[in-house]
Amino acid sequence: VALHLSGEPNLPNERAQRLFRIIQEALNNVVKHAEASEVSITLDCDQNGIVLRVRDNGRGFDPSAIPAGHLGLSIMAERIEEIGGTLLIDSQPSDGTQIVVGWSEKEKKDD
């Protein structure tokens, strides 16, 4: 696992905890499903918000064909949507997976 941090994450506790849980679930999915040998976590923070990327070199999957009972990705989406953020899942079979979470301070202030 490689960790890359840029800037100071200045999030309220609730948002920081949700972000932690998203990272935790993403890594859990890598262990359970990806058969990956490498994972990178990148967290870019500035005064406007954050962008989190969790990328693996595993077997990938088709995000439109998730079997019933696999709730991890939907739970991640709910957690980030509750704080006004976005979740993007980029994956293809045999090509790894990247999860991108974004949260903008500006968007949250405009609500």
Task: Name the features.
single chain; 111 residues; alpha+beta; 3 helices; 35% helix; 32% strand; globular; disordered C terminus
Q: Write down the Rg.
A: 14 Å
Spatial sequence of strands, sheet with the most strands: 1-2-3-5-4
Reading the helices and strands in chain order gives EHEEHEEH
Total beta strand runs? 5
- Going by helix content, strand content and strand pairing, the class is alpha+beta
Which shape, going by the Cα principal axes? globular
Q: Runs with pLDDT <50, length 5+?
A: 107-111
Please report the number of helical segments.
3
Structure described in brief:
By secondary structure, the chain is of the alpha+beta class. Helix content is 35%, strand content 32%.
Descriptive overview:
The protein is an alpha+beta fold. The protein is built from 3 helices and 5 strands, in the order E-H-E-E-H-E-E-H. It has a 5-stranded mixed beta sheet. Helix 1 links the parallel strand 1 and strand 2. The longest helix is centred in the N-terminal third of the chain and has 22 residues. The termini are far apart. The C terminus is likely disordered.
Give the helices and strands, then pairings:
Blueprint lengths: L1 E5 L6 H22 L4 E8 L2 E8 L15 H11 L3 E6 L5 E8 H6 L1
Parallel strand pairs: 1-2
Antiparallel strand pairs: 2-3, 3-5, 4-5
Helix pairs in contact: 1-2
